[in-house]
Design a protein that fits this description.
345 residues; alpha/beta; Peroxisomal Thiolase, Chain A, domain 1; 13-stranded mixed β-sheet; two-stranded parallel ribbon; 10 helices; 32% helix
Length: 345
């Protein structure tokens, strides 16, 4: 295969005509995430969610810095081997990214897709490799429970009560090295193609029910993916959303049934998988940029590596709100980006 074989499918999908690999990845999480069902799979678990820093924002930057270091170390690469970083986070002006990875001195393309940022960065990184614009790229994102609460809701000291529909922002960062080579034969998965999300707004305004706000975008991207790729739910071992949680999952199932698809037997949500609903009191589940990123690195890629899954659709979801839009009474639009990932034989 070569780059001239890259194909546009429909209006929003791309099937890559050349090999693009996730060569290595790393996951760094907080204490609560380390106590969850996936705890033993993460590369680094902090015992103090400040990670030795003086502020929550600095702690989130530290998450990114450590995740990049580990991903590069696993790939046996140095910072100067990387053409670009595609990275972003939830904070204003993406400050977790700006202060976290500046010391690597790698050309940066900042991205923002809210909690779908992992999917967006991998989409752009894969396109850059497939188009011949870089040899190796890093795709990075992060979130932190405390910095997100301060950014979008209330400082923790306020002690506000969270409704059962609310999700728990994951403290974590995932970093991925993407290239067109599997030189050492240790690549974790192949990126086959992607379906780029659209902004979908059903007029919902409840920022404490992110799952319901994002589910329509997930349904829209998923339907367009099936049409563009001429595929069905059964073509995938798993269809994996980012952080809809238990409430959003129910909404997604209903919306997809209305569109003529039943995905219930193959669907998985990172926000449901990362916490134990019975013992960890996270209400609807996990959310945040770090949720899908660390679950992809620690769990999903492991299943693909081992051949337990041959083909998955990884589709992180994002709620496109800010403090300003919320305070002005605006609705919460959603977006979802999908990537087809395959096991390497």
């Amino acid at each position: 295969m070569n780059r001239s074989d890259n194909q546009r499918l429909g209006r929003s999908s791309v099937k890559l005509g050349c090999d693009v690999y996730i060569n290595s990845s790393a996951s760094v999480v907080g204490k609560k995430e380390g106590e969850g069902p996936l705890g033993l799979l993460f590369d680094m678990v902090g015992q103090d969610d400040l990670f030795g820093c003086s502020t929550w924002e600095e702690a989130e930057s530290s998450l990114q810095k450590d995740a990049v270091y580990l991903a590069l170390e696993k790939a046996k690469l140095k910072a100067e081997d990387i053409s670009y970083i595609f990275a972003g986070d939830l904070l204003g002006q993406s400050i977790a990214t700006s202060f976290g990875i500046a010391s690597y001195n790698i050309p940066l393309l900042g991205v923002y897709g809210a909690c779908s940022t992992c999917g967006e960065s991998l989409t752009l990184g894969a396109m850059a490799i497939a188009g011949g614009y870089g040899d190796k790229v890093l795709c990075v994102t992060s979130s932190h429970f405390a910095s997100a609460e301060k950014e979008f809701r209330f400082p923790l000291e306020y002690g506000s009560q969270r409704p059962l529909s609310a999700s728990w922002t994951v403290t974590g960062s995932g970093a991925f090295v993407v290239s067109g080579e599997n030189a050492r034969g240790t690549a974790r998965a192949r990126i086959v193609g992607m379906t780029v999300g659209k902004i979908v707004d059903y007029g919902l305004k409840d920022s404490m029910n992110m799952g319901a706000c994002m589910a329509p975008a997930a349904a829209d991207t998923l339907e367009r993916h099936f049409v563009d790729w001429n595929s069905q739910p059964g073509d995938y071992d798993k269809i994996i959303t980012g952080d809809l949680g238990s409430v959003g999952q129910t909404v997604l199932f209903d919306l997809m049934r209305e569109k003529g698809y039943d995905i219930s037997s193959v669907h998985m949500d990172c926000g449901i998988e990362i916490f134990d609903a019975q013992s960890q009191d996270t209400h609807a589940g996990g959310s945040g940029c770090g949720c899908s990123a660390v679950t992809l690195s620690a769990y999903i890629l492991k299943q693909l590596e081992e051949g337990n899954w041959k083909k998955v659709l990884f589709m992180p979801t994002g709620a496109l709100l800010s403090k300003t839009s919320f305070n002005e009474g605006q609705s919460v639009p959603g977006i979802a980006h999908g990537l087809v990932l395959e096991h390497i034989e």
